[in-house]
Amino acid sequence: MRCFIAVDIPERVKKEVMRATERARRSHRDLKWVEEENLHITLKFLGEVEKEKIEKVKRVLDMITRAEAPFNLTTSDFGTFPKRGALRVFWLGIEGDLEEIKRLQERIDRELLKIGFDKEDREFTPHLTLARAKRYSRERVSLEDLDLDSVSGRSFRINEVILYESILRPEGPLYRKISVFKLRGR
Length: 186
What we know:
This protein has four helices and nine strands, in the order E-H-H-E-E-H-E-E-H-E-E-E-E. It is α+β, with helices and mostly antiparallel strands. It is an enzyme of class 3 (hydrolase).
């Protein structure tokens, strides 16, 4: 099964993000927009994982979340990957307790390396992916082309880490929670 590890954001923040991007979603249908229920901050993409290995991942996440405390994040500005030229990924930045989320992500990466997962080769940049350029799109969109309302400064608390299954469907992915791990450190 195809899996990833993430932290979720509150429904109120998801709704505000959807409102802030509403006009851009209508005018740029050539982008593949992330559905409201699928907005999250990815900590680690695992790819295809055998069922037997899922139990090992759960044990690792349980161990890590026992030691890590809840933390606060805040929405920031919109951005794109790459920073210049036609966008491939459109995202909303995250501020707040960045040291905590980065430490959590690094610990997950380090512990999963011990059970056979690859280490991330890029520096972790916490963000909410909002849209991706479709592979064969002719439209060249930049951040300046998008009609957006600000959604900066929306604070929220992260209390848990979630192991998700990603089910790919023609109408878009379905994310199913496999396990939820409360952050229990102090």
